[in-house]
Design a protein that fits this description.
Blueprint (H helix, E strand, L loop, with lengths): L2 E6 L8 H14 L4 E6 L1 H4 L6 H17 L8 E4 L5 H10 L4 H5 L2 H10 L6 H16 L4 E3 L5 H18 L7 E3 L34 H9 L17 H14 L3 H7 L5 H27 L2 H30 L6
Parallel strand pairs: 1-2, 2-3, 4-5
Bound molecules: adenosine-5'-triphosphate and magnesium ion.
The site of adenosine-5'-triphosphate has 20 residues, from helix 1.
EC number: 6.1.1.2
Function: Catalyzes the attachment of tryptophan to tRNA(Trp).
GO molecular function: ATP binding; tryptophan-tRNA ligase activity
């Protein structure tokens, strides 16, 4: 089977609906046809300030949400990034073939560093994409399903793989990003021109997977729209309504025109009520399952440890060959 790699940061207690639509739904569908590795990338999460105890808890919660959303740890390799030492080690090697300017062109770094200011921007935030390249390349990955906000990072990963291969001989498989166009990006319900994010400054426009369903329904009802009053997709002039349509379509598997038809001549209130129901129906069971899993953290930790051992085998083989190729002396 071809290999698949993807991951998410444990940067909040709950995942948001963009993570679910932009990533988890695809992961779930792809895990049959691929030998899939799904990681909770806790080393990446360290690029933001964290309370240590909270980070541990967020890591478990993220893993539980993967499983609750349908990732099967007996079939796919679902593990915590820091449990597999090879990630940090390969990242160092790759950082030595990454250009300073090349890394500086990453738009996520530019956005985040601007928001944090230069004193709060760490070198780790700058080299984040190099660690992500290591994540992917360790597993000889064929495809990387991600939201379109990660496309540039996967392109850098490809460049680094090709550069390493041409300098040292065939070592890494060059991965392909897989991005679902229609639903590639979910926007904030209050600021529908900004990507919905776990780490958004205000959570008024973020729909959380683990939130009380009544609270999520309320957020949908309060979503920003426009004064036109017609339910129709127009990303440029009607970003709020278009975003709601994309969410509706993604969660129901319906086409946007059929939803527009259903709500033709009806107001935004009806449309939002319909969407709130869809959201509650979809996330109610996911939330319950996640909370069940979190009620037995010892069992969850055992599952993660077994999966990390599986990941180690593949990752160590790649790392050993990299160490050899670049000329590090073998420890006998
Ligand atoms: P953070 O704010 O901490 O960066 P995030 O919500 O952006 O959190 P990530 O952990 O960076 O989440 O990304 C996890 C996955 O979810 C990635 O595949 C990413 O492309 C996808 N993703 C994140 N936000 C969205 C979104 N708004 N729409 C679609 N996909 C998204
Ligand atoms: Mg992100």
């Amino acid at each position: 089977k071809p290999r698949l790699y993807s991951g998410m940061q444990p940067s909040a207690d709950s995942l948001q609906i963009g993570n679910y639509i932009g990533a988890l739904m695809q992961w779930r569908d792809l895990q049959e046809a691929y030998d899939a590795f799904f990681s909770v990338v806790d080393l990446h999460a360290l690029t933001q300030p964290n309370d240590p105890a909270e980070l541990r808890e967020k890591t478990r919660r993220t893993a539980a949400q993967y499983i609750a959303a349908g990732i099967e740890p007996a079939r796919s390799t679902l593990y915590v990034q820091s449990h597999v030492r090879a990630h940090a080690e390969l990242a160092w090697i790759l950082s030595t073939i990454t250009g300073f300017g090349e890394a500086g062109r990453m738009t996520q770094f530019k956005d985040k560093s601007q928001r944090y200011g230069s004193d709060a921007t760490s070198v780790g935030l700058f080299t984040y994409p190099v660690l992500m390249a290591a994540d992917i390349l360790l597993y000889q990955t064929d495809i990387v399903p991600v939201g379109d906000d990660q496309k540039q990072h996967v392109e850098l990963t490809r460049d680094l793989a090709e550069r390493f291969n041409s300098r040292y001989g065939q070592t890494f498989r060059v991965p392909m990003p897989v991005i679902q166009q229609e639903t590639a990006r979910i926007y904030d319900l209050q600021v529908p021109t900004a990507k919905m994010s776990k780490s958004a400054e205000s959570d008024a426009g973020v729909l959380w997977l683990l939130d009380d369903p009544a609270k999520s329904a309320k957020k949908v009802m309060r979503a920003v729209t426009d004064s036109e009053g017609s339910v129709r997709y127009d990303r440029e002039n009607k970003p709020g309504v278009s975003n709601l349509l994309v969410i509706y379509a993604a969660l129901t598997g319906r086409q946007i025109p059929s939803i527009e038809d259903e709500y033709a001549g009806r107001g935004y209130g009806d449309f939002k009520k319909g969407l709130a129901e869809v959201v509650v129906n979809e996330f109610g069971p996911v939330r319950e399952r996640a909370l069940e899993l979190l009620a037995d953290p010892a069992e969850l930790d055992r599952v993660l440890a077994a999966n990390a051992a599986r990941a180690d085998e593949v990752a160590d083989a790649t790392l050993a060959s990299v160490y050899d190729k670049v000329g590090l002396l073998r420890r006998v």
